[in-house]
Amino acid sequence: MPNHVHALLTPSVGYALSEILHSWKSFTAKKVNRLLGRTGEFWMPEYYDHLIRDEQDLAHHRDYILGNPEKANLGGWSYVGAL
Q1: Residue 62's Cα: distance from chain center in Å?
Q2: Dihedral pair phi/psi, residue 21, rounded to 5°
Q3: What DSSP state is assigned to residue 4?
Q4: CA angle, corner 55, sides to 49 and 56, nearest 5?
Q5: Does the pLDDT of residue 14 top 90, yes or no?
Q6: For residues 25 and 7, what is the distance between their CA atoms, to the nearest angstrom?
Q7: DSSP 3-state assignment of 15?
Q8: What is the maximum alpha-carbon separation in the chain?
Q9: Which residue has the higher pLDDT, 1 or 44?
Q10: Can you say how many angstroms the Cα of residue 8 is from the centroid of all Cα atoms in its chain?
Q11: Could you write out the three-class secondary structure of 48-64?
Q12: Are 29 and 45 within 8 A, CB to CB?
């Protein structure tokens, strides 16, 4: 997606989701800003999380995430649905 990211993840024991996202955002912001020749904020500070409750909920969110680029006419990208 050009303006946001969807991800399904399970934090390892001892790692908080907020710490994982901070690290991910910091790393990617530095890389992208370097590639774009710019500085400053890249990501918005907030995020939305959802606790997956069962297999049906997991399937629903997985299908939503995989279908989201297609709905935005961004289908065919090699990294959509990549592990």
Answers
A1: 12
A2: -65, -35
A3: -
A4: 85
A5: yes
A6: 13
A7: coil
A8: 43
A9: 44
A10: 8
A11: CCCCCCCHHHHHHHHHH
A12: no
